[in-house]
Please model this.
Amino acid sequence: MIVDCYLDEIGGARNVAPHFQNVSVLRAAHDELPETLDVDGIIITGSAASLMEPPSWAELLVQRVAEAAERGVAVLGLCFGHQLLARALFGPEAVRRAPQPELGWIEIERCEEDTLFLGIDRNFTCFVSHKDEVNPDHSDFRKATRILAGSPSCSVEAFRVLERPLWGVQFHAEMQLEESRELVISRFGAGDPEAVELLEHAMATPELVDKLMLNFRQQVERWMGTRSLLE
Model:
């Protein structure tokens, strides 16, 4: 299942769905959330919403994700989804306003080996856009997870819950280049010098998202004993 947390009418599932077969899409901000997320694997997209002031649907989604994770469902959170997973597992204090919000194409460094990052370089460039982040100093988060990647401005660019099929990534490997460029322009304006400088470094990351989604699909198969998400 793709839990699409975009607030607009188009949604973000289009960035993820091509990597899967037989995958359902739930528009979290538009559809009524079911009583349970009774699926083998869940991918939670980014969103313009913030968990610092969570809308009612996000609060309910936190509960549903916590219940799914407790049942052993595999989960991959992307940006907002990464933060929502941390909140679902470790509580509201596990997410905070970022001391240094990130926007643009930055270098991310992996600091741990993990099956989610098989075939991915230790250092890679990817688009980021977030004002909130997972709190690296939260004691329960630190005890129960491994931080897999970080950047100079964000120490938790990716994490995994120990011995469980639960991952979060703060960066946007899945986002199409046109969408990421539009986000930069909407923030500053097309002719703004900062926007121009950021856009000079714009790049698509199709190989990165291909590998991440393949690795997640294979982990769903491993943990859930199913091929329902595999192409």
Summary: The chain is about 30% helix and 25% strand. Strands lie at 2-4, 25-27, 41-44, 74-78, 95-110, 123-134, 145-150, 158-161, 166-169. The domain at 2-224 is CATH 3.40.50.880 (Rossmann fold).
